Amino acid sequence: MPLTGFAQTTIPLESDRFAIVLHTDKQNYLHMVYCGERLNRPDEYKHIAATFRFPGDNSGIYSNAYTPAGTWNLAEPAIELIHNDGNPSLDLKYVSHKTTPIDANVTETAVLVADPVYKVSVTLYYKVWKKENVFEQWSEIRNDEKGPVVLNKYASANLFFTNKDFYLTTFQGQYLKEMQPMEEKLLQGMKTVDSKLGTRAMLLGTPNFMVSFGQPARENSGMVMLGQLAWSGNYKLDFDIDSYQNLRLIAGINPYASAYTLGNGKSFKMPSLIYTLSGNGTGQASRQLHSWARNYRVLDGNGQRLTLLNNWEATYFDFDETKLSGLIGDTKKLGADMFLLDDGWFGNKYPRNNDNAGLGDWQENVKKLPNGIGYLVKEAQKTGVKFGIWIEPEMVNPKSELYEKHPDWVIRQPERPEKYYRNQLVLDLANPDVQDFVFGVVDGLFTRNPELAFIKWDCNAVIYNAYSAWLQKNKIPQTHLYVEYVNGLYKVLQRIRAKYPKVPMMLCSGGGGRGDYELLKYFTEFWPSDDTEPIERIFLQWNYSYFFPSITTDCHVTDWGKQPIKFRVDVASMGKLGFDVVVSHLSPDDLAFCQQALKNYDSFKDIVWHGDQYRLASPYEGPVASVGYVSQDKNRAVMFTYFHSNRVVESFTSRPIRFAGLDPDKQYRLKELNVYPGKKSPVDESKVYSGSFLMNVGINPNVSAGRASVVLQITKVN
Predict the structure, then answer these.
(1) Cα separation of 448 and 496, whole Å?
(2) Can you name the residues that pair with 240 across neighbouring β-strands?
(3) In this structure, are residues 556 and 581 in contact, taking their beta carbons and an 8 Å threshold?
(4) d(C-alpha 84, C-alpha 90), whole Å
(5) CA-to-CA distance for 284 and 261, rounded, in angstroms?
(6) Residue 57 has what pLDDT?
(7) Percent with pLDDT over 90 in the chain
């Protein structure tokens, strides 16, 4: 079906600057025919389809807005199912659509397409945030046949782009090397990014991606799309360059081992594909996505966060009440808001003294904590800090009372040898009893300790030997497990948030294993990586910043790396700052520096968390990296600059770095923060610069191998 068929119905989905246009052809098939700058005259959208000439009997299906399998389509489908009578074909034609304004900034459009022969329909949803140029897209399948249908593939979104030349950046890696960017020009054929890990699905790659149109991605120019599938389990992203060099993007739950039986009268809602479009490069796209996330998606996205001292690298599993009380005192001495007790506080029959026992037995270890968690919470209150705690409620050690009592709660194939990841297995969250148990872990902690201020929620294992005793018992296909596990997790989190709506919770998964906009409805922040070496963190935080605002990114100062404490603190101050150090081991000058740095952080953290971020100098393009944050009123800003090269750069010349986002007509004064005791800043605080000067000529932070990190405060002069 060529695109030249005249439109019967045209459906523009408009943000302030961009439009996605759907239209129906003479046979009532729904196509996506445009993605680009919004037109000044909406009546002209109906003429777009006629401007394309793609000859060939099969070309038209490429542009289908939700491509079905099994009829006349030969391209990669978005949906593939088997009807109750065994017929494997599906045909979808436009029925109706409705656009509903949610408020002055948000609209939601629902487009109904249905099979003209079988009673199966799909509703395509498009939610648009106009000001942010953000689109959220998902699909919902409904079965009204007399019996069940089997969904073999069920994508969330199916997009079609006629722009010429596409450059894709995906973010792959491994443990301790997460979120590594890989850019490539897409050539004819299929590029697939997926995960089959079940839990901790983002360990080896992420569902975040970047598509640049016409040229490789640039920070401040060109049309780009930043996107993410907001799903916490197995995902699949297909980037298909068709025979006419158009791009088809199909995104959704990975259909691997996940055929889903949908009963009569039932609907299945797919997760969301979230994306933003920018005509001015990745910088603007990121700021749009950050603003949307803070205002509409992340739990308490415009609120506050707690700085903390974590005991993990100070004690690992080796602690008792006395040692922890001392660390609580160190938290106050350092100047942090909260002490966080990490792994190792639980288990009695099988004490949690290492990672091969006790997981699942969530009672305080009486030898380590004879007076329980409540005693430590009160110690923190007396000291003047808050108290938080680590849990990993989705997991179990085989060496635990929980495993002994409930082997049927564990994801494991009874016919196969057990395979462990970090000495643990995954609990079966498809099982409502397990959901109750996991909710009870959190609820019990809060019930016994109402003053508890923070939860660090870990998830370290992947799913091996996928098999659910509960699904088997209830005669539900095992292919539902990967989907129902994630849905079970969401049900638990919904219950937690209904009862405890505001308590901060961190998504931790060994680093990089979890960080998506569905889970961030329930969590305030996430842990990007267990790699806290500060130079590596510059690169990691740079890459995460394309998709996530700084308020969501946990950045801790640790003993990793050879850089001085100043460098480590400066890098961690670009997100939600925390410490995982032995305070008593700090030299007097290092301690004094950290205490002052925390006070400085309190003075600018609102800009980092809630301001606009500008990536000023890429660590991938030279030995210097620089990132700036600007308050919404453009009166204040903070700039972080690092000399990050481990090599001797003999020819390195210090140059000014152009700032961005200021008011060109306002006047600003610079001040260097986080100056180490005994050092003197070369920054002349008496000078006043216009915003125009700072953005066109720039600032020279004077970084070098001997002055490797510089934090500058930029303040409007009245």
Answers:
(1) 15
(2) 190, 248
(3) no
(4) 12
(5) 42
(6) 66
(7) 93
Which tens digits make up the pLDDT trace of 83-122? Answer: 999 999 999 999 999 999 999 999 999 999 999 999 999 9
What amino acid occupies position 504?
P
The H or E element spanning position 593 is: helix 588-610
Handedness of CA 476, 464, 358, 579 (dihedral sign): negative
Cβ neighbours for 30, distance < 8 A, ≥ 6 positions apart: 22, 23, 24, 64, 65, 66, 92, 93, 94, 111, 113, 124
**20 contacts: CB under 8 Å, gap ≥ 6:** 12, 13, 32, 34, 35, 126, 135, 159
Q: How far apart are CA 509 and CA 529, in angstroms?
A: 8
Q: Is the dihedral of CA 662, 666, 669, 673 positive or negative?
A: negative
Closest CA relative to residue 349, chosen from 357, 341, 340: 357
Over 431-467, what HEC string results? Answer: CHHHHHHHHHHHHHHHHHCCCCCEEEECCCCCCCCCC
Segment 525-543 shows an average pLDDT of: 97
pTM metric for this prediction:
0.97
| CB-count exposure of residue 33 (10 Å: 0-12, 13-18, 19+) | buried
DSSP 584: G
Assigned token pair, 198: 């079940």
- Asked whether the beta carbons of 527 and 552 are under 8 A apart, the reply is no
Question: Please, what is the end-to-end C-alpha distance for the chain in angstroms?
Answer: 64
How far apart CA 639 and CA 607 sit, in angstroms, is 11
Measure the CA–CA gap between 650 and 358, rounded to whole angstroms.
Answer: 54
Q: Are 551 and 525 in contact (CB under 8 A)?
A: yes
Q: What is the DSSP letter of 676?
A: P
Tokens of 404: 């002994």
**Spatial CA neighbour of 64 closest among 26, 31, 27:** 31
- CB 611 within 8 Å of CB 630: yes
Can you tell me the distance from the alpha carbon of 57 to that of 74, in angstroms, rounded to the nearest whole number? 11
How many other CB atoms are there within 10 angstroms of residue 491's CB atom? 16
Two tokens, residue 25: 């052809």
Per-residue pLDDT tens digits for 275-314: 999 999 999 999 999 999 999 999 999 999 999 999 999 9
Q: How many CA atoms lie within 13 A of 462 on its CB side?
A: 13
Q: To 5 degrees, how large is the angle CA 35–CA 39–CA 41? A: 140
Angle at 91 between CA 150 and CA 13, to 5 degrees: 105
Return the amino acid letter for 206. T
What type of residue sits at position 269?
K
**Can you say how many angstroms the Cα of residue 564 is from the centroid of all Cα atoms in its chain?**
30
How far is 351 from 364, CA to CA, in rounded Å? Answer: 9
Instruction: Compute φ and ψ for 396, nearest 5 degrees.
Output: -150, 140
The neighbour count for residue 403, using CB atoms within 10 Å, is 21
Instruction: Determine the pLDDT at residue 659.
Output: 98
Measured over the CA atoms of residue 455, residue 456, residue 462 and residue 465, the dihedral's sign is negative
Radius of gyration of the chain measured on its C-alpha atoms: 27
Q: Are 479 and 260 in contact (CB under 8 A)?
A: yes
Q: Give the CA angle between residues 203, 283, 218 to the nearest 5°.
A: 85
Backbone angles phi, psi at 171, to 5 degrees: -125, 100
